Amino acid sequence: MTLDLDALIQYTDWEREKWRSWLREQGDAVLTTSAGPHGDGRVSTIGEIIRHIFSAEKRYVERLSGRPMTDPSTIAADKIDPLFAFGQQSRRDLRGFIRAFPADKWDSMQEHKIMSATVRATPRKFIVHVVTHEVRHWAQIATLFRLNGFKIDFHDFLFSPVFGELRREQQKASSP
Questions:
Q1: Sign (positive/negative) of CA torsion 56, 58, 63, 68?
Q2: Could you report the average pLDDT of every consecutive run of 10 residues in the chain (176 residues)?
Q3: What does the alpha-carbon distance between residue 70 and residue 82 come to, in Å, rounded to a whole number?
Q4: Where are the beta strands (DSSP E) in 68-155?
Q5: Local structure of 110: helix, strand or coil
Q6: Angle at Cα 54 formed by Cα 10 and Cα 76, nearest 5°?
Q7: How far apart are CA 120 and CA 107, in angstroms?
Q8: 5's torsion region: left (phi>0), alpha (psi -120 to 50) or beta?
Q9: Which among 133, 126, 128, 114 has a CA at the least distance from the CA of 5?
Q10: CATH architecture assignment, domain 5-159
Q11: How far apart are alpha carbons 143 and 139 in whole angstroms?
Q12: What is the phi/psi pair of residue 64, to 5°?
């Protein structure tokens, strides 16, 4: 079995749009919802987690392409539209990188400095990490919103339109 990277990218595209729509209904202030007191100090709000998702995607593509890295602090984490515009740009860059990257280089080891560590992995592993990193953080965001009293809809891959939409029917309670 092989991992279908395109399916994961389609899923995260759907996830992003679903979140952007929900966040717009709530208003920009919802982005300032706390990420909790026990983080690692890099993010403190949900908006900052979303910026982190998009900036990780952008910066990994830049690393793998040998380009200068974007400073994510220039992107406002408290405004929905500019934040998601940054996400659209990072996604365009990811798709462009995948299309243009030479097939014979996907499994060649590369070394990159990430924060205070040097990481050695293949471009394939870095790109799969980017997409699974995003999936993990959207689940974290859903949990944080639920803990803060917000009602969040289903975001599971199973309920996404990838590989055909699953029809979900509510079971009616039977009467005695």
A1: negative
A2: 79 97 97 89 94 97 95 95 98 97 95 92 96 96 96 89 71 52
A3: 15
A4: 110-114, 117-121
A5: strand
A6: 135
A7: 12
A8: alpha
A9: 128
A10: Up-down Bundle (1.20)
A11: 6
A12: -65, -25
Ordered by start, the domain boundaries in the chain are 5-159
Judge contact between 119 and 111, C-beta under 8 A.
Answer: yes
Query: Residue type at 130?
Result: V
> What does the chain come to in residues?
176
Q: What is the pTM of this model?
A: 0.90
What pLDDT score was predicted for residue 1?
38
DSSP-assigned states of every residue in 44-78 = -BHHHHHHHHHHHHHHHHHHHHTPPPP-GGGS-SS
Do 62 and 77 form a contact (C-beta atoms < 8 A)?
Answer: no
> DSSP state, 155?
-
CB atoms within 10 A of CB 140: 15
Torsion of Cα atoms, 153 then 158 then 162 then 163, to 10°: -150
Residue 115: the pLDDT is 86
What DSSP string runs through 20-46?
Answer: HHHHHHH-GGGGGSB--TTS-SS--BH
